[in-house]
Amino acid sequence: MSGPKTAMVLAAGLGTRLRPLTNDRPKALVEVGGRPLIDHVLDRLAAAGVERAVVNVHAFADRLEDHLKRRRRPPAVTISDERAAALETGGGLKRAIPLLGAGPVWVSNIDTVALGGGAPALETLADGWRAEAMDVRLLLAPTATSIGFHDSGDVFLDADGRVRFKAPGEAAPYLYVGAHICDPAIVADGPDGPFSLLDVWKALAARGRVHGAAPDGLWMHVSDPAGRASVEARLGA
Asked: ∠89-90-96 over CA atoms, to 5°?
Protein backbone atom coordinates (compact mmCIF):
# COMPACT_ATOMS: atom_id res chain seq x y z
CA MET A 1 0.00 0.00 0.00
CA SER A 2 1.08 3.58 -0.56
CA GLY A 3 1.70 5.99 2.27
CA PRO A 4 3.95 6.16 5.32
CA LYS A 5 4.69 2.95 7.19
CA THR A 6 5.23 4.76 10.50
CA ALA A 7 2.67 6.64 12.59
CA MET A 8 2.62 8.90 15.63
CA VAL A 9 -0.46 8.32 17.80
CA LEU A 10 -1.23 11.19 20.15
CA ALA A 11 -2.50 9.46 23.29
CA ALA A 12 -1.14 11.66 26.09
CA GLY A 13 -4.18 13.89 26.59
CA LEU A 14 -5.89 14.03 30.00
CA GLY A 15 -9.39 13.43 28.62
CA THR A 16 -10.96 15.87 31.07
CA ARG A 17 -14.09 16.31 28.95
CA LEU A 18 -14.72 12.56 29.11
CA ARG A 19 -14.89 12.43 32.92
CA PRO A 20 -16.05 10.40 34.81
CA LEU A 21 -15.04 7.83 32.15
CA THR A 22 -11.41 8.95 32.51
CA ASN A 23 -11.32 9.03 36.30
CA ASP A 24 -9.49 5.70 36.38
CA ARG A 25 -8.01 5.32 32.90
CA PRO A 26 -6.47 7.31 30.06
CA LYS A 27 -8.72 8.60 27.32
CA ALA A 28 -7.11 6.07 24.97
CA LEU A 29 -8.64 3.19 26.97
CA VAL A 30 -12.21 4.49 27.00
CA GLU A 31 -14.22 1.84 25.17
CA VAL A 32 -16.45 2.54 22.19
CA GLY A 33 -18.27 -0.32 20.52
CA GLY A 34 -16.56 -2.79 22.86
CA ARG A 35 -13.01 -1.72 22.00
CA PRO A 36 -10.70 0.92 23.48
CA LEU A 37 -10.23 4.04 21.38
CA ILE A 38 -6.52 3.26 20.96
CA ASP A 39 -7.38 -0.04 19.27
CA HIS A 40 -9.77 1.63 16.83
CA VAL A 41 -6.93 3.91 15.76
CA LEU A 42 -4.14 1.32 15.63
CA ASP A 43 -6.28 -1.16 13.70
CA ARG A 44 -7.28 1.54 11.20
CA LEU A 45 -3.65 2.52 10.69
CA ALA A 46 -2.59 -1.11 10.27
CA ALA A 47 -5.29 -1.63 7.64
CA ALA A 48 -3.84 1.35 5.77
CA GLY A 49 -0.38 -0.26 5.72
CA VAL A 50 1.23 1.19 8.85
CA GLU A 51 3.82 -1.20 10.29
CA ARG A 52 5.12 0.77 13.29
CA ALA A 53 3.43 3.26 15.63
CA VAL A 54 4.94 5.55 18.24
CA VAL A 55 2.39 6.20 20.99
CA ASN A 56 2.93 8.95 23.54
CA VAL A 57 1.74 8.38 27.12
CA HIS A 58 1.08 10.63 30.12
CA ALA A 59 -2.01 10.11 32.31
CA PHE A 60 -2.35 6.52 33.59
CA ALA A 61 0.72 5.75 31.49
CA ASP A 62 1.40 2.35 33.08
CA ARG A 63 -2.11 1.15 32.34
CA LEU A 64 -1.90 2.22 28.69
CA GLU A 65 1.53 0.64 28.28
CA ASP A 66 0.27 -2.63 29.76
CA HIS A 67 -2.61 -2.67 27.29
CA LEU A 68 -0.31 -2.02 24.33
CA LYS A 69 2.09 -4.77 25.43
CA ARG A 70 -0.81 -7.23 25.34
CA ARG A 71 -1.74 -6.41 21.74
CA ARG A 72 -0.83 -9.24 19.42
CA ARG A 73 -1.49 -7.60 16.06
CA PRO A 74 0.14 -4.87 13.98
CA PRO A 75 1.40 -2.27 14.10
CA ALA A 76 4.42 -2.72 16.34
CA VAL A 77 4.31 -0.10 19.10
CA THR A 78 7.06 2.07 20.59
CA ILE A 79 6.32 4.30 23.59
CA SER A 80 7.21 7.99 23.75
CA ASP A 81 7.21 8.77 27.46
CA GLU A 82 5.63 12.04 28.57
CA ARG A 83 4.99 11.05 32.18
CA ALA A 84 6.86 14.09 33.47
CA ALA A 85 4.77 16.57 31.50
CA ALA A 86 2.28 16.34 28.65
CA LEU A 87 3.68 18.24 25.66
CA GLU A 88 0.51 18.86 23.61
CA THR A 89 0.36 17.90 19.94
CA GLY A 90 3.36 19.80 18.63
CA GLY A 91 5.61 19.15 21.60
CA GLY A 92 4.67 15.48 21.60
CA LEU A 93 5.56 15.12 17.93
CA LYS A 94 8.86 16.93 18.47
CA ARG A 95 9.77 14.66 21.42
CA ALA A 96 9.13 11.60 19.24
CA ILE A 97 11.28 12.65 16.25
CA PRO A 98 14.21 10.37 17.24
CA LEU A 99 11.79 7.44 17.44
CA LEU A 100 9.99 8.15 14.18
CA GLY A 101 12.97 8.25 11.84
CA ALA A 102 13.30 10.21 8.62
CA GLY A 103 10.55 11.00 6.15
CA PRO A 104 6.79 11.56 6.32
CA VAL A 105 4.66 9.86 8.95
CA TRP A 106 1.02 9.55 9.86
CA VAL A 107 -0.07 11.53 12.92
CA SER A 108 -3.38 10.53 14.49
CA ASN A 109 -5.53 11.56 17.41
CA ILE A 110 -7.32 8.82 19.35
CA ASP A 111 -10.81 10.30 19.74
CA THR A 112 -12.24 9.82 16.23
CA VAL A 113 -14.06 6.68 15.11
CA ALA A 114 -14.81 5.81 11.49
CA LEU A 115 -18.10 4.24 10.44
CA GLY A 116 -16.98 2.62 7.23
CA GLY A 117 -14.33 4.09 4.97
CA GLY A 118 -11.64 4.52 7.63
CA ALA A 119 -8.67 2.73 6.09
CA PRO A 120 -9.64 3.55 2.46
CA ALA A 121 -9.88 7.21 3.45
CA LEU A 122 -6.33 7.09 4.80
CA GLU A 123 -5.16 5.42 1.60
CA THR A 124 -6.79 8.17 -0.48
CA LEU A 125 -5.07 10.80 1.63
CA ALA A 126 -1.73 9.05 1.18
CA ASP A 127 -2.18 8.77 -2.59
CA GLY A 128 -2.24 12.56 -2.82
CA TRP A 129 0.84 13.21 -0.68
CA ARG A 130 3.45 15.21 -2.55
CA ALA A 131 6.44 16.25 -0.44
CA GLU A 132 7.56 18.83 -2.97
CA ALA A 133 4.20 20.65 -2.80
CA MET A 134 3.14 20.28 0.84
CA ASP A 135 4.39 19.84 4.38
CA VAL A 136 1.07 18.63 5.81
CA ARG A 137 -1.95 16.84 4.29
CA LEU A 138 -5.00 16.82 6.55
CA LEU A 139 -7.83 14.28 6.57
CA LEU A 140 -11.04 16.30 6.39
CA ALA A 141 -14.77 15.58 6.38
CA PRO A 142 -17.85 17.70 5.69
CA THR A 143 -18.89 19.77 8.69
CA ALA A 144 -22.56 19.15 7.97
CA THR A 145 -22.48 15.34 8.08
CA SER A 146 -19.81 14.50 10.68
CA ILE A 147 -20.99 13.49 14.16
CA GLY A 148 -19.94 14.94 17.50
CA PHE A 149 -17.70 17.74 16.20
CA HIS A 150 -18.30 21.47 16.55
CA ASP A 151 -20.70 22.80 13.93
CA SER A 152 -18.68 25.74 12.59
CA GLY A 153 -15.98 23.72 10.81
CA ASP A 154 -12.25 24.32 10.59
CA VAL A 155 -11.05 24.93 7.05
CA PHE A 156 -11.77 25.78 3.43
CA LEU A 157 -10.26 23.92 0.47
CA ASP A 158 -9.32 25.53 -2.82
CA ALA A 159 -9.44 23.77 -6.17
CA ASP A 160 -5.84 22.57 -5.79
CA GLY A 161 -6.47 21.09 -2.34
CA ARG A 162 -4.74 23.86 -0.40
CA VAL A 163 -6.18 24.60 3.03
CA ARG A 164 -7.26 27.96 4.41
CA PHE A 165 -8.10 28.05 8.10
CA LYS A 166 -11.27 29.93 8.95
CA ALA A 167 -11.08 33.43 10.36
CA PRO A 168 -12.84 34.38 13.62
CA GLY A 169 -16.59 34.42 13.09
CA GLU A 170 -16.48 32.32 9.92
CA ALA A 171 -18.13 28.95 9.42
CA ALA A 172 -16.13 26.51 7.31
CA PRO A 173 -17.39 23.57 5.22
CA TYR A 174 -14.77 21.05 6.38
CA LEU A 175 -13.55 19.67 9.70
CA TYR A 176 -10.21 18.14 10.58
CA VAL A 177 -11.01 14.61 11.71
CA GLY A 178 -7.86 13.69 13.55
CA ALA A 179 -5.37 12.22 11.07
CA HIS A 180 -2.78 13.73 8.77
CA ILE A 181 0.51 13.10 7.01
CA CYS A 182 3.47 15.35 7.69
CA ASP A 183 7.23 15.47 7.82
CA PRO A 184 8.04 15.71 11.55
CA ALA A 185 10.73 18.22 10.63
CA ILE A 186 7.98 20.88 10.67
CA VAL A 187 8.21 20.91 14.48
CA ALA A 188 11.96 20.42 14.88
CA ASP A 189 12.49 24.12 15.62
CA GLY A 190 9.55 24.33 18.02
CA PRO A 191 9.97 25.23 21.69
CA ASP A 192 11.26 22.72 24.22
CA GLY A 193 7.92 22.25 25.94
CA PRO A 194 4.21 22.10 25.17
CA PHE A 195 2.96 23.68 21.95
CA SER A 196 0.16 23.07 19.49
CA LEU A 197 0.39 21.72 15.96
CA LEU A 198 -2.41 24.10 14.97
CA ASP A 199 -0.09 27.10 15.28
CA VAL A 200 2.46 25.37 13.06
CA TRP A 201 -0.20 24.48 10.49
CA LYS A 202 -1.50 28.03 10.30
CA ALA A 203 1.97 29.38 9.63
CA LEU A 204 2.56 26.78 6.92
CA ALA A 205 -0.90 27.33 5.40
CA ALA A 206 -0.08 31.01 4.89
CA ARG A 207 2.69 29.77 2.56
CA GLY A 208 0.41 27.30 0.74
CA ARG A 209 2.13 24.29 2.31
CA VAL A 210 -0.92 22.71 4.01
CA HIS A 211 -3.19 20.61 1.81
CA GLY A 212 -6.21 18.47 2.62
CA ALA A 213 -8.69 15.98 1.23
CA ALA A 214 -12.16 14.82 2.24
CA PRO A 215 -12.57 11.20 1.05
CA ASP A 216 -15.81 9.29 1.52
CA GLY A 217 -16.51 8.08 5.05
CA LEU A 218 -18.50 9.01 8.13
CA TRP A 219 -16.40 10.29 11.06
CA MET A 220 -17.57 10.47 14.66
CA HIS A 221 -15.89 12.38 17.47
CA VAL A 222 -15.83 10.98 21.02
CA SER A 223 -15.66 14.31 22.82
CA ASP A 224 -17.56 13.70 26.08
CA PRO A 225 -19.80 11.01 27.66
CA ALA A 226 -22.81 12.16 25.64
CA GLY A 227 -20.76 12.06 22.46
CA ARG A 228 -19.55 8.56 23.28
CA ALA A 229 -23.16 7.45 23.79
CA SER A 230 -24.11 8.90 20.39
CA VAL A 231 -21.23 7.10 18.68
CA GLU A 232 -22.08 3.82 20.40
CA ALA A 233 -25.70 4.14 19.29
CA ARG A 234 -24.60 4.71 15.71
CA LEU A 235 -22.16 1.81 15.78
CA GLY A 236 -24.90 -0.45 17.12
CA ALA A 237 -27.47 0.64 14.54
From this structure: 90
